[in-house]
Amino acid sequence: MSAREEILARIGKAVAGAPDVEIPRGYRAGRQVEDQEALVRLFAERVDDYRAIVHVVPAAEVPAKIDACLGDRKMFVPEGFDREGGWPDLRTADGVITGCAVAIAETGTIVLDHGPGQGTRAQTLVPDYHLCVVRADQIVPGVPEAIARLDPSRPQTWISGPSATSDIELNRVEGVHGPRTLEVVVSA
User: Fold this and answer.
1) Number of alpha carbons in the 13 Å side-chain half-sphere of residue 57
2) Could you tell me the pTM of the whole model?
3) How many CA atoms lie within 13 A of 4 on its CB side?
4) Domain that holds residue 65
5) Is 11 a member of any domain?
6) Half-sphere exposure of 21 (CA within 13 A, CB side)
7) Per-residue pLDDT averaged across 1-28, rounded?
8) Which 3 state secondary structure label does DSSP give 127?
9) What separation in angstroms does the CA of 89 have from each of 82, 125, 181?
């Protein structure tokens, strides 16, 4: 018998005859958004808390803001993102520019489901710089509302700020598991 089988057998023996317990699933969900502007402000504040760079601009100003953010960077532009002049080779690009599937105001989290304009997982995690464009109507109050908008059969990447980790001495290291710099343009 393997160690795994032995542990599972012990657990089975310990819970044998125990009554089934109903687990309450009364999560907050379906909150109505009365003030989309307040939701955008909360999202921008939370994204900023993660040390990401965030810009909230009117929709008409998004192309100019993207140009200003990119400067002379060579960007990988995934298929389906509405922008010309993308750098075709991920290995030599300075960064990636994407859209998103949904964004969460309470947590400042951006969710990619790798649909059109969002690239593959590797395309969004390999470059050192990620510019993500979020439309105001993609921002939801919380995680339950985000999950309701996502297709569970699609791959997902949940991004809460630039990639960062801490070593045992709590020294913060950025860029280990993904882009060192996350910049977000919110189209209000």
Assistant:
1) 15
2) 0.79
3) 0
4) 35-187
5) no
6) 4
7) 88
8) coil
9) 18, 14, 19
Residue 112 CB-density burial (10 A; 0-12 exposed, 13-18 middle, 19+ buried): buried
What is the per-residue pLDDT across 35-89, written as a single tens digit (0 to 9) for each?
Answer: 899 999 999 999 999 889 999 999 999 999 999 999 999 899 888 887 766 666 7
* Domain annotation covers residue 171: yes
Measured distance CA(100)–CA(36) in Å, rounded? 18
Average pLDDT, the chain: 88
How many domains in the chain? 1
For the record, the structure tokens of 161 come out as 């700020």
Q: How far apart are the first and last CA of the chain?
A: 60
Domain assignment present for 96: yes
Q: What's the confidence (pLDDT) of residue 2? A: 92
